[in-house]
Amino acid sequence: MRLKQFLKTGTFYKHLGLSIIIAVALIWITLQSLSFYTNHGEEIKVPNLYGLSIEEGQNLIKENKLRFSIYDSVYNPKLPAGCILDQNPKAHATVKSNRNIFLTINSLKPEQVRFPNLVDNSFRQAYEILVTNGFKIGKLDYVEYDYYNLVLYPKFKGDSISKGELIDKGSKIDLVLGKGKNVKIKIPELIGKHYNDAKERIILSSLNIGRINFDSSVSNLSDSLNAQIYQQSHAYAENSKIAPGSRINLWLTTDSIKIKDAKAYFRSQSIK
After folding, report:
1. Looking at residue 259, what is its pLDDT?
2. pTM of the complete model
3. Do you find a cis peptide bond into 89, omega within 30 degrees of 0?
């Protein structure tokens, strides 16, 4: 049978119609399968997991038809061990069901690192090494020695420590330093500074933090972080100097008028 004649037969149209029906059915099945696989049209808001324990977070994640993996852990002594510190995707993000949420949790104990060598380094070098390795500077103790600010040995919790010892990251390290001969330190200007800034200036001036005094305007942690210094012991003056290792006491407030008055008084004293 010739092609033209076959195209005019009922058999051809029957097969053509059947092919179209099969093609449409296959396309419909494919689209439905993709919709089911990708949860098309189903959106879930990621719950806020910050600060929850792993058990609490896990229950909330399951309730929202999501999954989770612990991606990382860090140590924050101010928060409960094992609590959730971060999440990805972030809280309130829109995702599909069964999405994996990556969590960062607070370690049960701080990471331990091998203590670096500080002996015979200058104080500035030791400061950089300690900060780089995740330690904090504690007390600066000056003793009789010819070379000023040379590190004689570090201490941890009152005992000397050596290179290579395992120490908790974030620990405060005291330094025993050479006093030099007749060395005097210029008093840093701290009025109007926040505590963290003042602390760094005091330490880098080879001095120690003394008593911290907050006035009645400071009633919570947020206030203490925003407070500024309105008074300091060993008041700053152009040529005033003190012995290395001396303590500087600080008075802080959130009272803008008190801070303004302190700055004005400081300027007037500087002009004299």
Report:
1. 92
2. 0.63
3. yes
